[in-house]
Amino acid sequence: MLIHLSSPHIHGGDSIRSQMMSVILALLPAGMVSVYMFGWLAVFQITLCMTACLLTEWLTLKWMGRSTTPIGDLSAALTGLLLALTLPAMTPWWMTLLGAIFAIGLGKQVYGGLGYNPFNPALSARIILLVSFPMQMTSWVIPMHLSTAGIDLYAFSQAWSLFTGGAAALAQSIDAVTMASPLGYVKTAWTQGISVNDAFQAYHYSYLDAFIGREAGSLGETSALALLIGGIYLLARNTISWHIPVSFIVTIALLATVANSINPQHYTPPMFHLLAGGLMLCAFFMATDPVSSPVTPVGQLVFGIGCGILTWCIRTWGGYPEGAMFAVVLMNCAVPLIDHYCRPKVYGHAERKS
Amino acid sequence: MIKQFLNKLGISPSGFAGGIHPDMRKWTEQSPIQTCPLPSLLVIPMKQHIGHICSPLVGIGERVLRGQKIAKAEGYLSVPVHAPTSGTVIKIEEHAIPHPSGMGLQSIFIEPDGLDERDTSLAPMPDWQAQDVGALRERVRMCGIAGLGGATFPTFIKLVHDQKNPIETVILNGIECEPFLTNDHRLMVEHQDEVLHGMRIIMHMVHAQHGIIAIEDNKPDAIAAMQHAVNALDGTHNIRVLAMPTRYPQGSEKQLIEAITGKQVPAGKLPMHVGVLCQNIATTRAIYEAVTLGYPLTERVVTISGDAVPERGNMRVRLGTSMRFVYEQCGLTDFSGIQLLHGGPMMGERLRHPDIPVVKSSTGLLALQQELFKEAHPVEEPCIRCGHCSQACPIQLTPNLLADYSRNEQLEKAQDYHLFDCIECGACSYVCPSHIPLVHYFRFAKGQVAQVRREQQFAEASRQRSALREARIAREKEEKAAKRRKVRAKQTPVASADDATPQTSVKD
Fold first, then answer.
1. Are B347 and A7 a contacting pair at CB < 8 A?
2. Is residue B33 in some structural domain?
3. Which residues are B467's β-sheet partners?
């Protein structure tokens, strides 16, 4: 049906679906690393989370008596994938399911569906899970290459038992199959008065491992390299603009550099911040979620800087070891305000009007 | 490649912000301009420019010559209309014109006699350099020349030498950034000397020191042709050809000025306020013909293209020729399931039927298959705030926010977000992944604002009328009362003359 017929009469061919698809493609490297690190467990989590998100979207749309065609835009699938990648590999299946329902139901459909959610749906669900189940959400499965308990995550049956029944199903204690993430470890050490360098040594921390992702952490957050590849792909496809990720990362690096040069024993070095936890995932994939981030370039810079400052503050002084997701969701609140005050200078107008 | 990358980073190397790179589909760029035959009937609308409508000067049954003035301009912002060929006026009545609403306008119907006899009352001015600038300007006005790039602003108004705002640079706009259109391109390749001649006349008229012929780099043959023509001039001129990186909407006057000079035309001001005059290629050639040959504007070059046109090309068409006739010359006879466009695909309007005359603004006649057209106009999806519209906007608006305000009729907010700075180039709609017809919303909001203003003016006028009426009634009442008092005072002077007299005098 021809709804409106005013110019322009040609279109660039971009669609919501193609935008979502390119983000999903950009997450492939991170997804592959997660499979390499956590075997079948990663496959189970990602599949469950994506399916549950799509199903929740379908059910909520049906329930509200709306058209179910928006399912095809793949935004729910992307939310599912993003949420899965932020989860620890051994999250109980029902928790993942709950997360997916939170993400789509409370994170998105409650506000009116795609385009109307003030917060990133995947991140809001992740935060609900973290606050509700702090224990499970910070139990990181020992990755394959470090595994000493004899658990083979590449073996379907073992991974399945772990996925459905937890460590107990394999007659293991939780401590035998999990370990701390670098961020968590350093934070704990810091509260005990251990210096940063000692903590690094005790943990056998290596920048290279953190860069390529051979460390404990959430499914898709371990490998900065894989996320960088995806991020660069998104930049090249013009799916996202450089403003948010660059300002986010640069802000953290700057703050960490300054603090670290003042007291290297107390404050972690910048490289540690950049490679740790969900920073790369948040900077390239979460903060750049178009719906919940600013539209204007200046606004995006402000948003990125805000995310950077909050992340560093929460990581350094907060109760949680990781702050990136809180930072993004907090900055999401400020988006309408940022957009209003950061409008670009319009052609032919001398001063910025706000 | 590097430039495109920089563009993606939001850094524009060539001056103006935003912009897009649509698939140009310049399928007719190598098709020489052909002459469209004379049809059996010409319909000449009484307004083919921005401004006031003309009034007919000829009667039914009268014989007219090609170039004869058949309607006179009314008011300053107007140019006369001329007979496109010799023939007989058979009727004067309303006829459909190219307008999205399908509206009609008073038109003169001429039946050509096939002789194509010219009216020679306007003397050629080959010695234009010796002519008074005012006379040249009057010639341009008399010849009915309006901006042939599509806006059809009366050209003579721009051709003025103002002491306060002297024009330093004349920019010849050979950008032609709309996809499909190639009429200016062909004019530059085939009539480069005439175009250049016209440019020199313009520079002479406005006392401009510099001339720049700006051409996008997707037209290397036009660049070469114009450069060749410039080289052939004697050394006294100061004209250069400038190749511009291709980007839409570079052909928009304001964007072109920014791209070349780095200056922005202040809001509400004209290019002359930054010392620049922009002219379209076809208009410039029309000025050449008007001045040196004494020919009024009676024809123009039209690009006939689109995937539904069998024999695409560029045609010299007499104004008033039915578009159906022009399409038929290009082998398109069956219009079912085809969308017709007047102008380019980015800014042109959709035609409801082809029985509409070619007018001065007819840069292109496109015919697109329904499927291609539908692809560009699918059902709107929700805005995902990706910001691609802001990146593409050459004016630096935030189209998605502006569209929200426009759609919700928050007209004050929309104006605060610079609704009226939008040039309706369509770049935002083109890149929108949600297929939101942003420009459509802006047009709607502009219309709403205009409507509100009209209503306010009407209400204000009514209020003033009623206030005046009340004042008049009060005054009359007072006058009557005064009269009555006087009469009463005269009739009963005896009662207490001492008291009554001062009383009335006080009241008066």
1. yes
2. no
3. none
Query: CA of A266, closest CA in chain B: separation in Å?
Result: 37
| Residue A195 confidence (pLDDT) | 85
In 10 A of CB B138, how many CB atoms? Answer: 12
Question: Would residue B77 be called left, alpha or beta, if left means φ above 0 and alpha means ψ between -120 and 50 degrees?
Answer: beta
Disruptive mutation site among B4, B386, B389, B410 for chain A (greatest number of A CBs within 10 Å): B386
ipTM of the complex: 0.88
Q: pLDDT digits over B172-229, tens only?
A: 999 999 999 999 999 999 999 999 999 999 999 999 999 999 999 999 999 999 999 9
* Tokens 């007299």 found at: B501
How far apart are the C-alpha atoms of B414 and B444, rounded to whole Å?
11
Helix (H) or strand (E) run with residue B33 in it:
strand B33-35
Q: Does residue A3 register a pLDDT over 50?
A: no
In a shared domain, residues B323 and B400 = no
Is residue B439 domain-shared with residue B356, that is, in the same domain?
no
> What is chain B's Cα-based Rg?
29
Cα angle B479, B484, B488; round to 5? 150
Task: Encode burial over A327-342: b for 16+ CB neighbours within 10 A, e otherwise.
Answer: bbbbbbeebeebbbeb
Phi and psi of A189, rounded to 5°? -60, -40
**Residue of A240, A250, A232 whose CA lies nearest to A312:** A250
Domain range for B442: 381-490
Q: Determine what percent of chain A falls in helix, strand and coil, rounding each to the nearest 5.
A: 65, 0, 35
A11/B401 CB distance under 8 A: no
Residues 6 or more apart whose Cβ sits within 8 Å of residue A152: A39, A158
pLDDT of B57 higher than 90: yes
| Residue B249, preceding peptide bond in cis (omega within 30° of 0) | yes
Q: What is the pLDDT of residues B383-429, one digit of tens each?
A: 999 999 999 999 999 999 999 999 898 999 999 999 999 999 999 99
Examine residue B242 and state whether it is found in any structural domain, yes or no.
no
Cα–Cα distance measured from residue A288 to residue A300, given in angstroms and rounded to the nearest whole number: 9
Q: Do B439 and A350 touch (CB under 8 A)?
A: no
Distance from CA of B293 to the nearest CA of A (A): 38
B42-45 vs A178-179, strand pairing mode = unpaired
Measured CA to CA, the distance from residue B171 to residue B280 in angstroms comes to: 9
In a domain, B370, yes or no: yes
Domains in chain B, number: 2
Q: Are B61 and B80 in contact (CB under 8 A)?
A: no
Question: What class does CATH assign to A18-183+193-340?
Answer: mainly alpha
The verdict on whether omega for the bond into residue A8 sits within 30 degrees of 0, i.e. cis, is yes
The domain spans of chain A are 18-183+193-340
Query: CB–CB of B215/B175 below 8 Å?
Result: yes
β-strand B276-280 against B169-174: which pairing, if any?
parallel
Q: Which of B345, B375, B390 sits opposite A295 (nearest CB)?
A: B390
Q: In 10 A of CB B483, how many CB atoms?
A: 10
Tally Cβ neighbours within 10 Å of residue B260. 20
- A16 to chain B: which residues are within 8 Å by CB? 381, 384, 433-434
